[in-house]
Hints:
This protein is α+β, with helices and mostly antiparallel strands. The protein has a single domain (3-68), classed as Double Stranded RNA Binding Domain (2-Layer Sandwich), CATH 3.30.160. It contains 1 helix and 3 strands, in the order βββα. It has a 3-stranded antiparallel beta sheet with strand order 1-2-3, with helices on one face. Strand 1 (17-21) and strand 2 form a beta hairpin. The model has no long low-confidence stretch (mean pLDDT 90).
Amino acid sequence: MTVAERSDRANVTFTAYVRWDKSVGLFAGTVPGIPGAHTQAATLDELRDNLREVLELLAEEDLIEMDEVPDFIGLQQVAVAV
């Protein structure tokens, strides 16, 4: 089912993975399971706004398949001696 086929489109919440990209000095965000849902920004607020814009554009083009979006469970950090 695409986002356009859902009757409650305004209530869809996505989880983004955010990291600091040292190579360009920007925050980078991606939404797992949504091809093309990634962006960069100088601040976290700008990153959130950019991700929202990307997701809205993908939804308008019916490129988000809700049945394929993974459910967010949580994050774990794993320490490894390297």
